[in-house]
Design goal:
This protein has 265 residues and is α+β, with helices and mostly antiparallel strands. It has a single domain, classed as Exo-inulinase, domain 1 (Jelly Rolls, Sandwich). It is 20% helix and 26% strand. Strands 1, 3, 4, 6, 9, 10, 11 and 13 form an 8-stranded antiparallel beta sheet that branches. The chain has a 5-stranded antiparallel beta sheet with strand order 2-5-12-7-8, with no helix packed on it.
Length: 265
């Protein structure tokens, strides 16, 4: 009992999760879609076994390819339906894209999206707020930490209470408390897009945006309420003037689309 308690306290004290300890580099001795003994002790579970899509709901346009979930055609995204994502959690996954590819990881109800993108080849890469590892149309990462197209990236999402963190290849690129007034403008952007930041209880969803994308090593654990996160501040990347103008155009289109249609005269 004491040994288990000490191990638990160790994890609470570190509060950074196994995915960070593994770092940005993919280790040759770490097979994909497996859990280490330390990950098991921390409470991680695999959501994809690398062999089949058991537990995942889709319309036949996703398949297992080289031990990864691969988007192969039209039909929509793929959703893990075994259980919903807990309120406080750590989600680790590996992803890669082809040139100009766009996808996303949705982890809470509404528009909570960890953006998956070829930053150099896709137009969304021109705005940090819609670039890879962004909280899409809300919070920009502090830097572009992506690897070249065709290489595997390590994504990580940590949510505890009102704190949201996005990590990419061992770098914490987003860390904010959405209840902090200094992020009010960013939070309003996400609200206008359709997200209620207080919402919880979604199924994990991988987006089909019409482009080739691959996912593997998808791991999830509950983060205890008492766990201390690494809250080292990170500063979101600056948004270029052209991107800000484009955002306003998008918001205006959203606003117009939501207006009730006038009765025909």
């Amino acid at each position: 009992m004491m040994k288990r308690l000490m191990k638990r306290l160790l994890w609470v004290g570190l509060g950074v999760g196994l995915c960070l300890m593994l770092g940005g580099a993919l280790r040759a001795n770490e097979p994909p879609n497996t859990l280490t003994s330390d990950e098991k002790a921390a409470g991680f579970e695999l959501l994809f076994n690398g062999l089949d899509l058991q537990g995942w709901e889709q319309k036949g346009n996703w398949k297992v390819e080289d031990r990864a979930i691969a988007r192969t055609g039209r039909g929509g995204g793929i959703t893990y339906k075994v259980k919903k994502i807990p309120d406080d959690f750590e989600l680790c996954f590996e992803w890669k894209v082809a040139k100009r590819s766009n996808s996303g990881v949705y982890y809470r109800p509404g528009q909570y999206e960890y953006q998956i993108l070829d930053n150099q080849g896709h137009g969304d890469g021109r705005n940090p707020r819609t670039s890879a590892a962004s909280l899409y149309f809300c919070m920009a990462p502090c830097k572009d930490a992506t690897r070249p197209v065709g290489q595997w990236n390590r994504g990580r999402i940590v949510c505890l209470g009102s704190v949201i963190q996005h990590w990419l290849n061992g770098v914490k690129v987003i860390d904010f408390d959405y209840q902090d007034p200094k992020w009010a403008k960013e939070v309003e952007l996400l609200r206008q897009r359709g997200a209620d930041l207080a919402s919880r209880g979604a199924f994990l969803h991988l987006q089909d945006h019409g482009d080739p994308v691959w996912y593997r090593s998808i791991k999830l654990r509950v983060v205890p309420k008492e766990e201390r996160l690494d809250r080292t501040p990170v500063t979101p990347a600056a948004i270029p003037e052209a991107a800000l103008k484009h955002e306003q155009e998008i918001l205006e289109r959203m606003h117009q689309a939501r207006q009730p249609k006038k009765a025909a005269k």
